[in-house]
Specification:
18 strands, Rossmann fold, seven-stranded parallel sheet, 3 domains, alpha/beta, Fumarase C, Chain B, domain 1, 673 residues
Length: 673
Amino acid sequence: MPQVPAVSGKAVVAAIFSDTGGLAGVLEGYEPRDGQRQMAEAVADVIDNGGILLAEAGTGTGKTLAYLAPAILSGRRVLVSTGTKNLQEQIFFKDLPLLQSALGIQFTATLMKGRSNYACLQRWDAYKDGVEGNTSAGGRLIDTGDRIFLPIIQRWLAKTGTGDRAELRDLPEDIPIWKDIAAEAESCLGVECPQYDACFVTQMRRRAAESDVVIVNHHLLCADASVRQSAYGEVIPTCSTLVVDEAHQLEDVATQYFGYAVSPYRVDDLVRDAQRVVHEARDQGELTRALGRVAEHARIFFSGLQLDPSLRTGGGNEARARYTAEALSDHVEEGSALAGALEGLEGTLATAGRPPASTAGETPDPGEQAETMTTLQRRAGELARELRFLLRAGDPDYVYYVETRGRGVFLRASPIDVARIVREALFDRMRAVVLTSATLAVDGSFAYLKGRLGVRQAEELRVASEFDYASQALLYLPRRVPSPKAPGFAEAAAREVIELLKRSRGRAFVLFTSYGVLRIVQPLVEMALPYPVLVQGTAPRTELIERFRTTPNAVLLATSSFWQGVDVVGDALSCVIIDKLPFASPNDPVTAARIEAINAAGGDAFADYQVPLAILALQQGLGRLIRHRTDRGVLAVLDPRLRTMGYGRRFLASLPPAPVTYDLDAVQAFFVV
């Protein structure tokens, strides 16, 4: 662990962040920030004394260094969880090397991503052997276009030290090969795998167990916590100090990972992996028949779900429809048949791993074969149990729904309230917890976040942004846009977008709450303006952001995934336009269930849940604009409800303290200065 000076944490922190401290010595033009120092001292205090700290640190505070420095100086192992991989990499490759110099002490760090980011050597060998043997690599035909990437992967695996897919920059993001060779938890053989010592996940975990700073993301944090009782799933080493950055995202991620999901993809993966080892089974014929029964019942069950119009609301390629046991009654028989087939497969696999009778005096070694069968048996049993839980749809703490994405269908159950789960699975395991973000408070209070995440007692700190919004930003609210529910809203929004983009000369994010309005606005903008228009979905997210940064006068039209975690510093981004207040759809199954639960308990779901959630989302969207003290730009919200509805005052009070205008001429004048 680090060699920490023998003085109190707060005293060390005050020195580090002073105008003559360690940061001043390594950062050119360093200027002490009171907010950064206050936050760092508060973090040091909670790490020294234990407990929970809620710290809202406005953009430009330098919150990452404010929690990393005291955490490292504490001499305790710290687990840092971020909302995005981008922030993970910024911390690991930029902030920690900086602190290594600034603090004058030695410490170690490990970057941990989810298992699916790493190659599995065992699965790669099986996949490669299938290709070389001219088979279908376990059931999936090898696409001719995929074959050209096999030598690239082989050369990379021979030299990589991490097995992290991010190193393969020339590999398409959606290439099917990766799913077949990724180190998924379900297919992991654990300590019995012949590649266990060489395994990239094993090596990552060993490095983490010896590191002072372990950097994960919320998806891995919640996935690890949800399977911590499983010998196959746990990855993150035990830590006593947890920092959750971008903590406003934690509820959504926890909702995903503490639920249940069964899909044809999950069944197909099990069948494919089992097919690869059929030749090793004691009774090949019985195992083949058991796999055939599972595949056939899965085909019938999931196709039935997909063709049922009552389970596909909202239209389009993506939809989520809530169901009850009664609503699913037409499909229960086939679902139960699939669960029974999975249970039958579980039983067959229990005996399949036994060595066949010896021939010619040979005694086969049952080791690896038996362990493979045991892993497959466990997976079949888990699938059967989860499917029966989903078919019963009887637990009042969960909301049940069918999700369709294109041709894929998922049967899901999500916890309605994750507060107790998060508290028990994450916070109660820690001595000290820091929850931080640029957006945590609503109406000047942390009450909303505390209720959603199960935080009972906590120290609280709010640090204002270092930016001068009065001179750096202008907030534009149009007067002549109709209600978002009016038929002409999209066309009116397009007119405002075009006028704003003329004045900003492109250089803008236009953020929508739905694809519907985006699709109407896009052709109108493209016809009216000469600027390059980039549209979400036409290229991977990272590629679109890079093209936006490097293309003069570009305009990006996007939806929810671009509302947060995107940094574009400088003139390339000079305007952020938001079409509507980002209320979560009350037709979404999880949102609807939470609204019902709050109202049933005597609360006001709209005021206590829907508005606060939308306020935090709006703050995140507008927060894309000003990322540096030299940035200038216009924020525009086209939704008239900010002015016409009583709750609009709550939204306005939450926005950056920029001057407000209703006049496009003022926008023009702002850009002329």
